[in-house]
Amino acid sequence: MSTRLSNGGRLVNKAKPVEFQFNGKRMKGYEGDTLASALLANDQMLVGRSFKYHRPRGIVASGGEEPNALVNLGQGGKFEPNQRVTTTELFDGLYATSQNHWPSLEFDVGAINTHFARFLPAGFYYKMFMFPRPFWKHVYEPFIRQSAGLGKAPKERDSDTYEHFYHFTDVLVIGGGIAGLAAALEAAQSGLKVTIFEQTHHWGGRAVVDGAEIDGKPADDWVKDTVQTLEGMENVTIRARTMGAGVYDHGYVLGYERLTDHCPDQDGPRHRLWRIRATQIITATGAIERPLSFAGNDIPGVMLAAALRDYVVNWGVSIGDRTVVVTNNDDAYRTAIALVDAGLSVPAIIDARTDGAGPLADAARAKGIRVEMGKGIAKVKGGKRVEGVAICLQAGEGAVIEEIKCDAVAMSGGWSPVVHLWSHCGGKLIWDEAQAMFRPDPSRAPTGDKGQPFVAAAGTANGNLRTAAVLEDAVAQAKAAVKAAGGKPKAGKAPAGSDAEEGAISPVWLMPQGAPIQLRMKSWLDFQNDVKVSDVQLAAREGFESVEHAKRYTTLGMATDQGKLSNINGLAILSDALDQAIPQTGTTTFRPPYTPISMGAIGGEARDELFQPIRKTPMHGWHEANGADFEPVGHWRRPYAFVRSGESVHDAVMREVKNTRRNLGLLDASTLGKLIVKGPDAGKFLDMMYTNMMSTLKPGKCRYGLMCNENGFLIDDGVVARIDEDTFLCHTTTGGAERIHAWMEDWLQCEWWDWKVYVTNATEQFAQVAVVGPNARKVLEKLGGMDVSKESIAFMEWKDGQIGGFNARVYRISFSGELSYEIAVPASQGRAFWDALLAAGEEFGVMPYGTECLHIMRAEKGFIMIGDETDGTVIPQDLNMEWAISKKKEDYLGKRAQERSYMASPDRWKLVGLETLDGSVIPDGAYAPAPGDNANGQRNVQGRVTSTYFSPTLGRGIAMGLVHKGPDRMGDVIEFTKGDGTFVKAKIVDQVFYDKDGEKQNV
Amino acid sequence: MLILECPCCGVKSEETEFHAGGEAHLKRFGPGSTDAEFEGYLFMRENKRGVHFERWRHVNGCGKWFLAARDTNTLEFFGFYPAQTHEPPQDIKDKISAKHPGWSWREFQ
Ligand SMILES: [Zn+2]
After folding, report:
1. Facing residue for A451 by CB, picked from B3, B30, B74
2. Among partner residues A426, A749, A890, which is closest to B65 by beta-carbon distance?
């Protein structure tokens, strides 16, 4: 069993007991524990189930590389799934439950999958789910839904807060082991701005666990001194509990600081995302120990050798009473020695090498530990817990020589430098044959905006496994980084490190070397996703030779741990199966983040009202106070309708339409884009921008214009007013002002840069009100000021003057078909003007109306709306708008495209009006089927609805739509789908439903 | 996230301050052009892995469009220059030649 030792545990404070719950069971730990060490201290080895076979899974590592031990953490608004117990610091009241099992962790029905393992091989998902089709719905999908995903998605809103933090630094050191600390100190002594991150809450990395010495003192003491020195330096930013999550283009780095995960009751943000620009980056990220691939290596109790050591030394927790160590290198001997020193039993060290072990082996033997050279593990015995191992010759095929009883296995297949951050932005790797590892290739570092290298790996992350070399490398990298960042490195030497000599590693990718299929099917590579040696070999046989293909086919390394333990072992197996060298196979791509970071941290403060800025017109406050049902239009909020008490939204819309047609309506049109285009070449420029001729427009007049892109498709429309010889005011759609402004700037700056034109966006300078309806003139006359008679200002004219004492620009334009004035006043006067219109309009039956009323009235008149009648594939000709296309102009944007054969084809769908025979409203977007099928076996179609409303004016449904040869088919009846399998019949009619001759607007 | 330097206002800043505008040095073909010319203008792009010329706008800054020479493989910028030109300036072409002898891009080399 695993238990707390009476002695040891350099990180735990036994004076401070802590209580927590796992699966409803109350347990005790200490301050300084991780959830992993505390669970193990309570003999809770079994923590979850694997993804595919639901195999029992125990803790296998002691840090961020942990693939198995993921739990649901917290409750309610603090619930979060997939939290690694090895990186979760224990706190009083912690509440955790295990994942991916049903009905219970101890007894799991899905575990039956393991008996069908031979039916769930590599590529299972691809092979099984191709056919037959009905199986998808009834068998596969329910199965996948049941088994997909480890944790459960949170149900409640996250109750924590998060923040982003912007940071600039000359040298950024990632990793707080001795390499990182030595590099940071060296860089800091140059006076440059230095930042150092450590992902855990304790400094020193492996050296302090393994008992290295630095400058003649224990590494622990040197680490404490160095951290203290760095904390005292003004040019140094030093943060524990902060992970370097990703390295991006040109020295951009994301840091992930966990502020209150270990003390959730404390105020303040939970996580902080550091958004950093670093001139130079040093990745001192250490290395991760590799598992060995032998049968049963996934049984709870089999653990990485260094992790066992960590639990004993850091947290005073033993994994078992009798631990068999299995290794191919000297480092694992440290675990055997540490266990024996802690009073635990190590029945044997199984060393796959035939010879070559160094002084650590002698030290182990001197402590009476049995060392078996040239041996391997044939098989681990046990189910939910290790019960023993069968040993064999490493060079053989697994014939059992002897069985040894034990309750833990410490395995070490060697060390892989953590090259993730180096690789994120393009750093390349080399295969180091002697050390059996990929390490950074210093000649192919990630490069910055000037082509300069901006990342250097240091220490163990750079392939140095011995303390002295680690420190020398760290200081050398720091000096180089200081120089590259424009500083002057201080003269001086690296601290002197010393540790035990080590013999050479001998790579072991499969144990035993000639393991038959029965053993390979039980030799796990990826513990979380259940990928075994046999799966990778099968993938290779089936032709998945690229490592990226093999990865996706087998799902190796695709779990939440992203293959930190499995990738190198997997690609070694793949290389062997393909009979090629490991570097030839190469690695899969390393992608950020290094370990998962919270969605909350990514979002930061961008929640609720801070999510995005909302644009409000000067009259917004009145709308809010008067029942406005708002809808988003771009970043604007516009009233959809003004709902009165006792009314539904639909009722309100109907009332607004009727009242505007009969009496008087007011529309807040301030959101309409207003671009001022000015200069001697303004007319010539607008002739290019619009399909119409704008240069011939007389000052004082307005013209409705269409804009197309170079593909010929409509992108915007609006009324253009010529202010004077040099100046035009172009109205755009509400969402279009910024886009069209940018569009004009693009052409002026990049194509016709010699044309003398300026464009400015004056949208927010004006409040604009549409005064609409038969009583429109009366209310303006009552307010007094300029002459608004037909004689003074005719339809499609504009005029400056005063209305009711307000400086106003009045446009006689109409989007409703009624007598209509659109009146612009300075934005600061908008609300006062609106109030004045409401007061004066009372006797004329004034009512404000919203965007839905606007839409219905324009549809009744057959006016198009960009985004309804257009969808990025519609040209003006499709909308029968040849009248808005100048025949006289040689060129305008989109003209050439509209000459292409497909655009000029008589077979295009064109705009028509649609009248249902039964008066009902056709569903929006409905299609009209046509006889026969197309080449893909799909039903042919002959048209679709683009706008559809209930018209209170006509008392029936009206619609517009694009129909194949529509205008030639007036009076034809076609059917539209209703979405429920039934159809509605509609007659093709003229698109203008109301006041066809325009008598109402032209009075 | 790239760092760019606007040649119009001189500000060096994060990519988020800019807006990418696709390939540079396109020649516009309008009415009267052949189908092939128009197709080339509208659709055909170099899309190079390596030396590339592209349009950027300092949209959250001075608002000016400018052009950049960039290695799309290493993300190195060789230089930035105003949009009001039909070809890359000689000093930028020289800088590219120093790193990529014999490079070519459309009619430029
Ligand atoms: Zn600028």
Report:
1. B74
2. A749
